[in-house]
Amino acid sequence: MNYVRDVWLVASKDLRIERRSRVALQQIVPFGGIVVVLFAFALNSDRTLLPPAAPGLFWVAILLATLLAIGRSFNVEEANRARDGLRLSGLDGGSIFLGKAAAVAVELFLLEVVVGIAVVVLYDVTPRSALVLICAAVAATIGLAATGTVYGVLAGGLRARETLVPLLVLPAVTPVMLGATRSFQAALDGSPGDAWPWVQLLIAFAVLVVAAGTVAFGPLLEEA
Predict the structure, then answer these.
(1) In this predicted model, what pLDDT tens digit does every residue of 158-177 receive, in sequence order?
(2) 3-state SS class at 14
(3) What's the predicted TM-score (pTM) here?
(4) Distance CA 114, CA 83 (A)
(5) For 91-119, what is the mean pLDDT?
(6) Which residues contact 207 (CB under 8 A, 6 or more apart)?
(7) Where are the domains of the chain?
(8) Is 166 helix (H, G, I), strand (E, B) or coil?
(9) CB 91 within 8 A of CB 6
(10) Which tens digits make up the pLDDT trace of 9-67?
(11) Distance (Å, rounded) from C-alpha 156 to C-alpha 81?
(12) Spatial contact of 107 and 71, defined as CB atoms under 8 Å apart
């Protein structure tokens, strides 16, 4: 129970910071919406391209917003040497990792709802197979948040972290982007049976990254 309490303390701390600063509401969510709108304008000359491209464009928008959320999650630790406070707090490194990843995942879930509505409206997409979409979104979001948190702390102490984090995260989340796009595409095409293998890939990736991050985050935080 103490471990769960520690995870909750870290997650609630990050979410309170975001709620008070409203950075996620005023910057990350509008950024995701703008990306979707720009994609719609770019492909508007051929409306038939929008529905097939919708899953990929949706997840590209979420991925770009994830990079902003990860950067924000660790930038707030730089102020007033808050990262040293985390090191000296006595909290287990795994609980800090799970708490920070959970906070990022919550922000991404909210963003996905907003961006999903925009995609349905602008791209003329009809949602089907809700269970597949939800399972794929949950697994993909956990994978993105966990991967970003691991690489975020790895680059946290470096001056070039703003450019280094995307270079580290983008190749690492290739399985997430592939699985999420393919599963969404199959679900929207009315073929949920074809989507479940990709959902299983997303779940396996999320479990692997969460397990690795739980073990490695503490030493990485000490070295950052």
Answers:
(1) 665 667 788 888 899 999 99
(2) helix
(3) 0.89
(4) 31
(5) 89
(6) none
(7) 2-223
(8) helix
(9) yes
(10) 888 888 887 777 776 666 777 777 788 888 777 776 566 777 888 899 899 989 988 88
(11) 12
(12) no
* Residue type, position 130, single letter: A
Is the distance from CB of 37 to CB of 117 less than 8 angstroms? Answer: no
Q: How far is 46 from 40, CA to CA, in rounded Å?
A: 10
pLDDT at 185: 92
CA distance 144 to 85: 26
Reported as a pLDDT band with limits 50, 70 and 90, residue 78 is low
Angle formed at CA 56 by CA 183 and CA 137, multiple of 5 degrees: 45
**What is the C-alpha to C-alpha distance for residues 110 and 83, in angstroms, rounded to an integer?**
26
Q: What does the alpha-carbon distance between residue 10 and residue 149 come to, in Å, rounded to a whole number?
A: 13
Q: What are phi and psi of 15, to 5 degrees?
A: -70, -35
Amino acid occupying residue 98: L
**Which among 147, 151, 143 has a CA at the least distance from the CA of 183?**
143
b/e map of 111-121 (b: 16 or more CB within 10 Å)?
Answer: bbebbbebbee
pLDDT at 211: 95
